[in-house]
What we know:
By secondary structure, this protein is mainly beta. The chain contains 2 helices and 11 strands; from the N terminus they run ββββββαβββββα. The chain is globular. Pfam families: S1.
Amino acid sequence: xxxxxxxxxxxxxxxxxxxxxxxxxxxxxxxxxxxxxxxxxxxxxxxxxxxxxxxxxxxxxxxxxxxxxxxxxxxxxxxxxxxxxxxxxxxxxxxxxxxxxxxxxxxxxxxxxxxxxxxxxxxxxxxxxxxxxxxxxxxxxxxxxxxxxx
Length: 150
């Protein structure tokens, strides 16, 4: 059973944990003095590609470089002549110095940089715009119920 656990017992920190049964699958910690960067969008530059991690490190203006795993790289960043036979190799997809548009998926924690994605999503009151996704625009279920076909 999926649950959201909220711990607001301390004034200087709010903790939200998402659990599925006994397994923790997401944890967010917010501090009033700390600026929330999750979901922010940045133009970054690939500084290092690490094939053993199947990921790249991106300088997007923060103290630490962000972590961009291969599974979070949109097809738009693959070379035009790229044809994958099996699992793609990150060195064939990206190059150092390449500029990418990234969104923060998970904030920096401890000594780790932020987790990044190139699958940008902009949520509004009535729709979610996802330019690097086949769906492109998604309407909330509540809004779909009110749309009457003509």
